[in-house]
Amino acid sequence: MAAVKTIRHGEFEVVDSGRALDMNFAQKMGSALWVPMLLMGVMAFLVAFILGAIRANLVDTGTTISDAAGAAALGQYIPAVMFLGFMSVFSGIVFAIARILGVLRTGGGQVQATARRRVLTLKMPVSAWGMIVLMMMGMMMLLFAIITHITLGVVLHDAVLNSNQGTIQTVTAWATWVEGLRRFGAATYLGSIALGLATIVHVLRFQAMRMRELPQEQSVQ
After folding, report:
1. How many separate domains does the chain show?
2. Per the domain annotation, does 221 fall within a domain?
């Protein structure tokens, strides 16, 4: 078996392995998780819709302080569930991109190996690392926002029951701040997706170049 080494091939940095490489860890994770994450997002949106209907009914027909407290708390719980859905859908898209990159990686190697040519695999580009880093950053920001909204909902429920105006104003201020955080987290996720798409383009450029080279190369077997 040929030794695996990293070399420069034209404008690309590649791995010369002598064999078709398997998916890396991130690509395997993406293959396993992209469907569950998308399904989780759909379920979260459905739950948010149901909670929204319950809150609308409380606001419309509620007459007691308990109804007002429940409506106020749901005003925090609904964004938490909604952005759990956004986080899941965005993660599912990033994982799907990782899966696509894994399929391109293994498929390109198999084509070269079947043609009995050198097997060159594009080294993981900076944009792919950036996709992973931005996804993790976006996930942490949205998770923090989700947990904060749930905590604020519990605090706000008790504050409304006890007519504690100071706590209510504090919760309102925190909710405004967390809204900005979760929007920034969503934008970070979109940046991750953009880097993933740029990586796919980069891989396709390399593979197109490699396919044009194969007929001119000598067989290695």
Report:
1. 1
2. no
**Residue 8's beta-bridge partner residues?**
13
Torsion of CA 164, 165, 170, 176, to 10 degrees: 120
CA-to-CA dists, residue 36 to 27, 184, 190, angstroms? 15, 24, 20
The token duo for 79 is 């964004």
- Running DSSP on this structure, what letter comes out for residue 117? S
Domain that holds residue 26: 5-216
Query: pLDDT tens for residues 19-73?
Result: 888 999 999 999 999 999 999 999 999 999 999 999 999 988 877 888 899 999 9
Amino acid at 111: V
CB 181 within 8 A of CB 87: no
Rounded to whole angstroms, the Cα distance separating 118 from 187 reads 41
**C-alpha–C-alpha distance, residues 33 and 8, integer Å:** 33
Distance CA 153, CA 144 (A): 14
The fraction of the chain above a pLDDT of 70, given in percent, is 98
Asked whether residue 55 is assigned to any structural domain, the reply reads yes
Burial 146-181 (b: 16+ CB within 10 A, else e): bebbbebbebbbebbeeeeeeebeebeebbeebeee
Q: What pLDDT is recorded for position 3?
A: 62
Q: Is residue 99 part of a domain?
A: yes
